[in-house]
Amino acid sequence: MRLKISTRPLRSLACALVLAAAAPVAFAAPPSDAQVDELMDVMRVEQTLDGMWPQVEAMQQQAAAQAAAGKDLTAGEQAEIQAMLDRMMANLRTTLAWDKVQPVYRDIYAKSFDDQDVAALIEFYRSDAGQTLLDKMPQLMQNTMVATQQLMAPAMQQMQQEIEVQAAKAAADSDDAE
Q1: Residue 38: its pLDDT value, please?
Q2: What Rg, from alpha-carbon coordinates, does the chain have?
Q3: What gap in Å lies between CA 92 and CA 152, rounded to an integer?
Q4: How far apart, in whole angstroms, are the C-alpha atoms of residue 72 and residue 32?
Q5: How far does the signal peptide extend, from start to end residue (predicted)?
Q6: Is 133 within the bounds of a domain?
Q7: What is the DSSP letter of 29?
């Protein structure tokens, strides 16, 4: 005689276990604005953004200098370029002012992390290790930029050569068409 054992209780138990395991994920609460603000505060987000302006201005000045390289600009033309750069920087500073950026960042953090994530991040960034990371991040980023520029230099030279070849071909084709 064969015993018939129902698998229904096992399936129910398995389903309950899956649901129980998923419950913490399903019920993870979004962080509050206060939590996200505390995280951004402990991460020094506003100070980091304020600290980026000298680099942005330096890059802008460098780009303008490269664009003007080899050109004999008058003092008036140089003043016009500088005035344009100053207007552009003022516009950027207004557009990316903390009071405008903070709500956007808050929303991004709230969409990216739940309340437990934010609590753990706050704890980490309040720790000595978190503060050390924040202290050393500017140097890390600078070292990364330098290394990336060194890696890119040969490719940039190759692109410049190809542009010059194409420009020469275009000029030759234009001369032939005349």
Answers
A1: 97
A2: 29
A3: 27
A4: 57
A5: 1-28
A6: yes
A7: P
Asked whether residue 115 is domain-assigned, the answer is yes
> Nearest CA to 43 among 141, 142, 120, 140?
120
Are 109 and 118 in contact, with CB atoms under 8 Å apart? yes
For 97, the token pair is: 């002012």
Q: Say what the pLDDT of residue 26 is.
A: 53
| Stated pTM of the model | 0.65
How far from 9 is each of 4, 18, 20, 69, 80, CA to CA, in Å? 13, 14, 16, 80, 81
> Whole domain around residue 96: which residue ranges?
28-67+74-153
User: End-to-end alpha-carbon separation of the chain, Å?
Assistant: 102
CB atoms within 10 A of CB 120: 13
**Residue 160 covered by a domain:** no
What residues of the chain score a pLDDT lower than 50?
1, 3
Structure tokens at 71: 């050109």
* Tens of pLDDT, residues 151-160: 998 998 899 8
DSSP state of 3: -
What is the tally of structural domains in the chain?
1
- Dist. CA 98–CA 85, nearest whole Å: 21
